[in-house]
Every structure is written in structure tokens, then in C-alpha cells.
Amino acid sequence: MAKTQQAQKAPEPPGDSSQFAAIRERLLSQRQEIVDLYKQDVRAGQESTDDGTEDIVDRANNSYNRELMFSLSDGERVLLLQIEDAIRRIDEGAYGRCNNCGQNIALPRLQAVPWTKFCIDCQELAEKGLLSEDAS
Questions:
Q1: Angle between helices 56-92 and 17-47 (to 10 degrees)
Q2: pTM > 0.70
Q3: Smallest Cα–Cα separation from 117: which of 87, 96, 88, 90?
Q4: Chain centroid offset of residue 95 CA
Q5: 134 with 42: CB under 8 angstroms?
Q6: Contacts for 131 with CB less than 8 Å, ≥ 6 apart
Q7: Rounded CA gap, 133 and 122, in Å?
Q8: CA–CA distance from 73 to each of 35, 65, 77, 127, 130 (Å)?
Q9: What is the pLDDT along the chain (136 residues), one digit of tens a residue?
Q10: Which of 25, 27, 65, 135 has the fewest CB atoms below 10 angstroms from its CB?
Q11: Nearest of 108, 125, 119, 103 to residue 10 by alpha carbon
């Protein structure tokens, strides 16, 4: 019976809880930076209006700058969602495992891209569009 329990038990994720605690703190810090940037973008967007601007070049420039800020905000929003998902996985004890194959994700990968959900091999498959939406 002991062999059955050992065979069914999933391998431990790489690293120890103190390494994941450090990664969690880093994720929390990155999340706060993104939130701060978002607030700054909102303020800048509110301040840059076309009111009173007569020159068409100035209006076009203001419009371009607003679009650029919004597109950056979209990218920041995606990253924020990935960071929050990683924090949730740490809290739930699922962090460090590939969402697709279930294998451990190498600690250097977790340290380089702490919000990653996939091991290197599965990440390559995801980038080629070969993973199902359920794995994401």
C-alpha cells in the first residue's frame, strides 16, 4: 500500500518555500509597479485633451500619444493578469508545475519568468499554437 501511495503522489515542485516566498514578493512588487504605471497613464490621459488645441498637428500628436498609452496599458493588463495568476498558484500550492504536462518547471525559468505557467517544452508548443486553450 505504501508503494501505491508513493506512486500516486506528485513530485515536489522545484525549490523550497523560501525560494517561492522570494518569488512571491517579487511578483507582488511587479504587480504594484504595474498598478502605479496604470494610475499614471490614467492621469496623463485625463490631462491630455484636445480642448483648446487649434493646431491639427498638435491634436494628431495628442491622439497618437493617448493611443500609445492605451496600447501599453493593454500589455500591462495582460502581464498583471499573469502575475496575479502566479500569485494565486503560489498560494494554492500549484506553483512550479507546468499547466500542460504537470512536470516541474525548472527553478531558473521560474526565477527568470516568475509568472510562467509552462515548462520550456510546453511553452514552445504554446507559442506555435499547438496547445489547447484549456492548458492556458
A1: 160
A2: no
A3: 96
A4: 13
A5: no
A6: 100, 118, 122, 125
A7: 13
A8: 10, 12, 6, 22, 28
A9: 444 444 344 444 444 456 689 999 999 999 999 888 777 766 766 665 545 556 787 777 777 777 766 666 778 888 999 999 999 999 999 999 999 999 999 999 999 999 999 999 999 999 999 987 666 6
A10: 25
A11: 103
Query: What residues contact 119, with CB distance under 8 A and at least 6 apart?
Result: 98, 100, 101, 103, 104, 105, 106, 109
Q: For residues 43 and 73, is the Cβ–Cβ distance under 8 A?
A: no
Of 41, 21, 8, the C-alpha closest to 95 is: 21
DSSP label at residue 115: T
Closest CA to 73 of 39, 113, 104, 107: 39
